[in-house]
């Protein structure tokens, strides 16, 4: 299947219109939102084929699907031409999608060119696009625009995931609720900073006790405890009328996802394991914090990614675990990477897939998503 998809992309003969449609689908599968193809049927597009967003960053999407293999100099020239669309359209970066092979070193050189213009750059080369299209989420697009039929295994995989995809579409209708929550988190972060200098630190014997306090330091995550984790969870839901156990570690087993799609579902650890798992996670983070203060960006991102994945995996509360993990992620980014902009991490299919890959021991995709959320670029 890989050879069929790669061959269809490499020997592209379906023109710019279908190339833009294909790339719009690829972006959607990869977690981009607000995807707006400009003039797929022809006409001036204002140096932009597609406008899109991901995790709060705005991009110009540029599609380069020539027939046959081109030299890197030809690819670079097209990239530079399309890069001018970033400022023209008041976006923050460019997503360059091409059916050409681009080596890692060549990708870095394109990113440096964009950086010299104060723009972010994300490169979708042929192998990256091929991987997306050959995954279950890309099967429909591959069939529709490349004419590659699904095998029986493809069909089983595709329809097994349909219920989960439908559920995600329904959930997206509640994004305005998440937006309101983000504003609440921002307000709480400011309140927490004002309180840091005046309130003394306090420890508790019972880690499950809900206690509202703030450590006497602006580095909130330098000494994470279960009590603090519970307090942060309570803070997120302090105005929520939903009847759930806020600020208390769950005492029941839960099922995350949908039973119709077991491949995308997840059963977290038993309630009896939560406290030990949390203590191990927090002790490791606290012990490594002073080292991270002087570490390079790559090591810090790796540590934050590992912490984020493990906290989500433990799933310490009945509900709100994702929002809690994102809030702590924001604090860690502020303290260790001096990031002051609002960080958005969309609960997209690509993010959920990345968590699943991290469960299997490969945190690369999750690290890439978090890096993009922080800086607008991927690894």
Summarize the structure.
This protein has helices spanning 2-10, 15-29, 72-83, 85-88, 104-116, 126-134, 139-146, 152-160, 162-172, 175-196, 226-236, 271-292, 297-314, 321-337, 349-359, 364-375, and strands at residues 33-37, 50-54, 57-64, 93-98, 120-124. It is an alpha/beta fold and 379 residues long. The protein has 16 helices and five strands.
Assembly type of the chains comes to single chain
**Uncertain runs:** 40-45, 165-179, 194-217
Tell me the structural class: alpha/beta
Order of helices and strands: HHEEEHHEHEHHHHHHHHHHH
Sheet with most strands: 5 strands, mixed
CATH homologous superfamily name of the largest domain?
Fido-like domain
Helical fraction equals: 40-55%
Strand composition percent = 5-15%
- State mean pLDDT (0 to 100 scale): 82
Number of domains: 2
CATH architecture of the largest domain: Orthogonal Bundle
- Shape by Cα distribution: globular
Q: What gyration radius follows from the Cα positions, in whole Å?
A: 22 Å
CATH topology of the largest domain: Fic-like fold
Q: Count of DSSP helices?
A: 16
The CATH C-level class name of the largest domain: Mainly Alpha
> Numbering strands along the chain, what is their spatial order in the largest sheet?
1-2-3-4-5
N- and C-termini, Cα separation:
27 Å
The count of DSSP E runs of length 2 or more, i.e. the number of strands, is 5
């Amino acid at each position: 299947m890989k050879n069929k998809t790669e061959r269809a992309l490499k020997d592209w003969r379906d023109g710019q219109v279908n190339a833009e449609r294909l790339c719009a689908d690829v972006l959607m599968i990869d977690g981009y939102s607000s995807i707006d193809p400009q003039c797929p049927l022809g006409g001036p597009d204002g140096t932009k084929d597609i406008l899109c967003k991901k995790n709060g960053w705005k991009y110009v999407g540029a599609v380069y699907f020539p027939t046959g293999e081109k030299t890197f100099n030809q690819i670079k020239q097209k990239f530079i031409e399309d890069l001018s669309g970033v400022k023209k359209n008041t976006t923050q970066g460019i997503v360059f999608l091409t059916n050409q092979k681009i080596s890692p070193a060549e990708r870095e050189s394109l990113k440096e060119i964009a950086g010299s213009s104060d723009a972010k750059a994300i490169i979708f080369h042929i192998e990256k696009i091929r991987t997306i299209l050959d995954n279950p989420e890309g099967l429909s697009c591959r069939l529709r625009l490349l004419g590659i039929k699904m095998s029986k295994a493809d069909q089983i995989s595709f329809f097994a995931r349909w219920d989960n995809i439908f559920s995600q579409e329904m959930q997206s209708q509640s994004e305005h609720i998440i937006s309101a929550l983000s504003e609440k988190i921002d307000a709480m972060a400011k309140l927490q900073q004002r309180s840091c200098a005046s309130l003394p630190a306090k420890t508790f014997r019972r880690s499950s006790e809900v206690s509202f306090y703030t450590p006497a330091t602006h580095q909130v995550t330098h000494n994470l405890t279960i009590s603090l984790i519970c307090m942060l969870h309570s803070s997120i839901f302090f105005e929520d009328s939903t009847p759930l156990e806020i600020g208390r570690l769950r005492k029941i087993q839960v099922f995350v996802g949908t039973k119709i799609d077991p491949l995308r579902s997840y059963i977290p650890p038993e309630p009896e394991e939560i406290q030990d798992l949390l203590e191990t996670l927090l002790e490791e983070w606290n012990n490594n914090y002073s080292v991270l203060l002087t570490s390079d960006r790559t090591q810090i991102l790796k540590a934050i990614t590992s912490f984020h994945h493990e906290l989500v995996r433990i799933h310490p509360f009945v509900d709100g675990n994702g929002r809690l993990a994102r809030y702590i992620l924001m604090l860690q980014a502020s303290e260790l990477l001096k990031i002051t902009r609002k960080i958005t991490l969309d609960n997209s299919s690509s993010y959920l897939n990345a968590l699943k890959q991290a469960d299997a021991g490969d945190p690369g995709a999750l690290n890439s998503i978090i890096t993009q959320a922080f800086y607008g670029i991927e690894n």
